[in-house]
Predict the 3D structure of the following.
Amino acid sequence: MDIRFIQGNDAIAWGALAAGCRFFGGYPITPSTEVAELMARELPRHGGKFIQMEDEIASLAAVIGASVGGLKSMTATSGPGFSLMQEHIGYAAMTEVPCVIVNVQRLGPSTGQPTAASQGDVMQARWGTHGDHPIIALCPYTVKQCFDLTVAAFNMSEKYRTPVILLTDEVIGHMREKFEMPDFATVERVERPHIPVPHEWYRPYGDTPSDVPPMANFGDGYRYHITGLFHDDKGYPTQRLDEVDPWIDRVHRKIERNLEDILLWDEDEVEDANTVVVTYGASVRSARHAVKLARAHRAKVGLIAIKTIWPFPVEAVERATAHARRVVVPEMNLGQLALEVERVVGRRKVTRVNIANGEMVTPQMILDAIEGK
Amino acid sequence: MSNNKSIDRTEIRLAGEGGQGMILAGIILGEAAAIYDSKNATQTQSYGPEARGGASRAEVVISNGEIDHPEVINADALVALSQEACDKYAGNVRRDGWIIVDDEKVGRVLASHVKIVRFPIMRMAVEATGKAITTNVVALGVLVGLTNAVSREAIEKAVVKRAPKGTEEMNMKALAAGFEAAQDYIGRG
């Protein structure tokens, strides 16, 4: 057994390698730099390429290009860089190019505090780029999940031809924990499908039963056009309503019809709970500590730890909170995912627990909220 | 152990100035617990944007069970190598916990109902190895010698693993110097 004591950021990089990532384009930024460092060291050993770009705009452009060229590709950044990447997140969504964007959240806005923790980019991960677009964002709360959800991020990005955001935070990224490195051969990987038609029949954005047209890599002989403009099934710009409407429907449908595969969450003792804590990322750690203490005092408290925060797991939260009188939502921000929880369970039931100064939510803050203090 | 009897946790905070090796000491302690003692451990850190200077701290939580909250809630032991670190964290040590300070850097210790241990940790490092850079390893020897947070065997293996090639012997000397001082202290009662 290969047992290590490593950071979340290291586990993200190992997860990427295990998933088959062979290109990293990025610009180092605290608290995500360890991902780039490890990829810079390991990618050449795995037959991949690492490029440090001039900024984060170029970084994601390079990642999208590498992915179109046939390599599973990723970048890693934090708030200021994530802001710069928004334009190309939209481009990847529009062009349906698989890629993984890691955001290790730090305290913002602006340069903020590079080494301080935050969960302030939750809404930016959903709506940071303009226009209606589908997105998947995954949120680990252990070092092991940093590995597993990075693999899941690559697999979902390939399966659904979409950018996937791994939205972690400074606490989880920099935290070291015991981690058992799996044999990469045992890691489930989704590879790009073979194109089943001759070159001249290929439609890069055509209708298919799965709503995910197979993607041909540039250089494989399938000539097609890629643009951020609305496009027809060959990729050429269009303003025809009978091409625009189906496109926007299809790219949302390809996510919505696969929620069972995409939505991930953990539940602790929600069955008899009259109070349920709903949270994600580092705040799960504080919440689980608080829930265990409350349970030790016979309080009927449960926990939902959300791992897929976008799309938001509406039905899971609805089910788990059905009998709850109080729903507590701790976050390292002034209330972002709380808006979604309030939408699902109603504003009156929700007690928000917020901190936005770079420190973690403490278990005591959550206990106080559970007890209605 | 601390905070609440229903949750098994040993919480250690190592604090000083950036460059004193407190974060590396935290990593070594966490590795000793997680890998060589086969327990669970988390290590977290807090530091400023500077490479040297500024406040720096590492926190290690050790448990036989799952560790949820990864940061110190109420420390079982604090190692403070600067006055600022001691002032900031001395009040967050549990009753009968340990505060270990470098007495050439820390004067006042604002805490009561705790065991306060004063050693010239950096001078001990220079005397044992000729290098102040081993101060953090001496501090680990003192800490583990006093608290048994991890086994001696585990901390020795963890120090050797993390020591740059060729410095293993020097670091073992530093660790031993810390243990010796801890044993003298315990022997004195």
Q: What stands out?
A: Chain B is about 40% helix and 25% strand.
